[in-house]
Specification:
globular, about 240 residues, 12 helices, about 70% helix, mainly alpha
Length: about 240
C-alpha cells in the first residue's frame, strides 16, 4: 500500500536526510526541492525561511531518534530513568552532529529551537519524578538547567573530538558527578543524607504541590510555593 505524504512532510524528511548525509552545507533550497519533489515557493510558503526549515528538520530528526530509542513509558527507578535520558541526549548529539549543531550550536538570545524546548521539557519531567520520590537535593528548575547545560557540553565535546581520540567514559563520569551533586543515590550524597533530608522533603512537596487537592487559596498556595523554594535553596 502506498502512503501519501504531504509536501511539508516530504520537505522536512528530505532536509533531515540531507543534513545527516552532508551537514548544513548540503542543505539548499534547490537540493531540498529536488529531493522532496517540490518547487522553492512551496518551501518558503511552508516554513517562511531557511531557519524555519532547519528548525523543523532538527525537531523531526530529534523526535525520530527518541522514537527509535524509546523502550516504553517511564516506570522504572526515576534516577535510572534520568541516567537513560542523559544517555539519549548525548547519544543523539554524537550520532547526529549536524542536527545537534542546529539545535545547540548557534544560540541566539531570546530564541530557542523547538527541538531544544522538547529536550528540556523531557529532561524536566525526568527530574520532576526524582523530586517526587524525595531524592532530589535541589529545586527541579535548577537541577534541570544544570543537567541540560552539562549534557550539552559533553555532547559538543565528543562531537568536536576525532572519534579515535574520544574518551568513551567521559559521558558516564560526568553524568555520575552531576547525579552525586543532585540526588541522594551516590556514596557522597548518602554521607550527607541525614543533614539534607528536610530540604529533600521540601523539594518533593514543591514538586507535587500543583497536583495536590487542598483547601488552600491561590494566595496561600503561592506563599507555600515561595517558602518551599526558599527551603530548597538552603541546600547551597
Amino acid at each position: 500500500m502506498i502512503i501519501e505524504t504531504s509536501p511539508r512532510d516530504r520537505i522536512v524528511r528530505a532536509t533531515a536526510a540531507l543534513l545527516a548525509e552532508g551537514g548544513r552545507e548540503a542543505v539548499s533550497t534547490r537540493a531540498v526541492g529536488r529531493a522532496a519533489g517540490v518547487q522553492a515557493p512551496t518551501i518558503y510558503r511552508q516554513f517562511g525561511d531557511m531557519r524555519g526549515l532547519l528548525d523543523a528538520a532538527a525537531s523531526y530528526g530529534f523526535a525520530a531518534y527518541l522514537h527509535d530509542q524509546a523502550a516504553g513509558d517511564l516506570v522504572g527507578d526515576p534516577v535510572d530513568d534520568l541516567r537513560r535520558g542523559w544517555d539519549l541526549h548525548v547519544g543523539f548529539g554524537v550520532a547526529n552532529p549536524a542536527l545537534h549543531a542546529l539545535v545547540y550550536g548557534d544560540p541566539r538570545p531570546g530564541e530557542t529551537p523547538t527541538a531544544a524546548r522538547v529536550a528540556a521539557d523531557i529532561l524536566r519531567q525526568l527530574v520532576q519524578r526524582v523530586a517526587e520520590a524525595g531524592r532530589l537535593r535541589t529545586g527541579v528548575d535548577e537541577a534541570t538547567e544544570m543537567l541540560h547545560a552539562t549534557g550539552c557540553g559533553v555532547a559538543l565535546t565528543l562531537i568536536r573530538t576525532p572519534p579515535q581520540q574520544r574518551d568513551p567514559a567521559l559521558s558516564t563520569r560526568t553524568r555520575e558527578a552531576m547525579l552525586a551533586a543532585l540526588v541522594t543515590d551516590s556514596a557522597a550524597a548518602r554521607a550527607t543524607s541525614r543533614a539534607d533530608r528536610p530540604v529533600r522533603h521540601a523539594v518533593a512537596l514543591r514538586a507535587a504541590l500543583d497536583t495536590l487537592s487542598t483547601d488552600l487559596s491561590a494566595a496561600e498556595r503561592a506563599l507555600l510555593a515561595e517558602w518551599l523554594d526558599r527551603l530548597a535553596r538552603t541546600a547551597h
